[in-house]
Amino acid sequence: MDSLDDFMQMRPPTAARPLLGLTVLVVEDSRFASEAMRLLCLRSGARIRRADSLFHAQRHLAVYRPSVVIIDLGLPDGSGVDLIRDLTQGPSRIEVVIGTSGDPDGEALAIKAGADGFMPKPVSSIGYFQSKILEHLPADRQPKGLRTLNDEVIIPDEVALRDDLEAAAVVLEDATDQRSLRYLTQFLGGVARSVADTSLEREMDTLAEMQTSGEAVQSQVARVAAMVQDRIARTSPI
Question: Which long-range CB contacts under 8 A does 76-80 form with residues at least 24 apart?
Fold first, then answer.
């Protein structure tokens, strides 16, 4: 036995830690959202592995087989929908596959691709997180006895938010590549929704609409860049 983590994973699930024994692979490009998932898994007893792209997710999956995979639909190198389809329609199906997105259309896309469930972003409730996974597990993987629903909400470290904002700022410095800008638009819109930043979310929605209609976006990109820099200045450095 190599670690306390290995010891914990050998224990059966309990009412307080109902996800003990499970390994969760979280495929998520946002550091802030990924940190939220880490805290949710930690408080629930699950071991977590993380990948920030389809490429890194496939590398993880080539080495080990998680019990649960939670997949963000918008990733830097493609759509999480494709990974959901691969993991649910292949010969060796992952036990539980759940999609997640801040896009209101995301649930329909994830379920159509074969996902067992869907978690709309932001995900912060421990009880909700546990229930969304447990409802798709067989009876022998459930904790014994009554389980009190945990209504506690987790709050990720602000450093993770700063990482997301700084990554977005780099892309915004040279937003001439349309593919990168489309990805940045959905990424930053998701970050804004996760932290309830309604003004930034509104500007990202405007940018998305301008891209769809084919309008010139330079002035809107500059506006968003200034807002991102303002938020970086207001978040705590490491």
Answer: 76/29, 76/52, 76/183, 76/187, 77/53, 78/54, 80/27, 80/54, 80/110
